[in-house]
Amino acid sequence: MNAVYKTVLAATLARIDNRKRIHDNATLRPGQATARRSGGPYYIAGAPVRRDVREDRPGIPLTLRVRMVDAHTGQPLPGDVTGEIWHADANGNYSGYLSYGSEPVTAALTMALRRFRPTDTSRFLRGRQPANPDGVIEFLTIVPGWYTPRTLHIHFKATAGGRRLVTTEFYFPDHIREQVLSTAPYASRGPSMFVNNNDFEILLANGSPGSWPQFTGDPASGYTATITVRVKPGRHWPS
Question: Are residues 128 and 44 in contact, defined by beta-carbon separation less than 8 angstroms?
């Protein structure tokens, strides 16, 4: 990242302050659904069906447990629900897009001209799993690293009967992010200027209600992240 670009980016980030948004939307109101986000440029259809998505990627182990429920009743969703995740590795790289590295903003024009087509056949840190009768979907992965211009996050998409229920992102609280980025292999990249407070996707989602898992564990033993994703019934609802 050259000095001029870095200076301009830092000035832009300094104008974003998500603290109040995150605080005010930390807890979903009764009947409120989890915030929706786009799948981003790195989504690749046809992820393998598997619980363990790590392959050869080093990083702090993360068990992610997602429970899918009706936003109104709190009950597990009906139908054949499948959850899918994809995210960057500890160095900020996405499988399928390795040629862009962790500085994809500098390759934005190239990405746009290619219409975000994958550049390689790798598929690490991507997978999908069916929900159990309690609506729970579980993955074994690693904590993602940062990349320009994003804070740590995991993409999540749920479908039922071939129809999309929700696409969203899961975020890491500041104290977890700081623990992770000070631990190998993440620490070798140095600190990141991209944090929850200045993340533009969190800004656009007004704090991204319902996107903040509860964490247990530590860098030495790994983390478990648990979150309930609430979906409102609608025409996309499975029969």
Answer: no
Q: How many CB atoms lie within 10 A of CB 20?
A: 9
Contact call for residues 88 and 143 (beta carbons, < 8 A): no
Q: What is the distance between the alpha carbons of residues 92 and 101, in angstroms, rounded to a whole number?
A: 7
- For 2-11, 28-37, 176-185, which range has the lowest pLDDT when averaged over its residues? 2-11
The structure tokens 């447990």 sit at 65
Question: What is the Cα–Cα distance from 210 to 215, expressed in whole angstroms?
Answer: 14
How many other CB atoms are found less than 10 A from the CB of residue 8?
11
Strands (E) across the chain are located at 61-70, 81-86, 126-130, 136-142, 153-160, 163-171, 214-218, 222-231
Identity of the amino acid at 91: N
Instruction: Write out pLDDT tens, residues 117-149.
Output: 888 999 999 999 999 999 999 999 999 999 988
Domain positions in the chain are 3-231
Overall fold of domain 3-231: Protocatechuate 3,4-Dioxygenase, subunit A (2.60.130)
Widest CA span in the chain: 55
Q: What is the pTM of this model?
A: 0.92
Q: CA-CA distance, 221 to 214, in Å (whole number)?
A: 16
List, for residues 22-34, the tens digit of each pLDDT value: 999 888 999 999 9
- Whether the CB-CB separation of 156 and 93 falls below 8 Å is answered with no
CA distance 220 to 18: 30
The rounded distance, in Å, linking the Cα atoms of 75 and 237 is 14
**End-to-end alpha-carbon separation of the chain, Å?**
50
On the question of pLDDT at 170 being above 50, the answer is yes
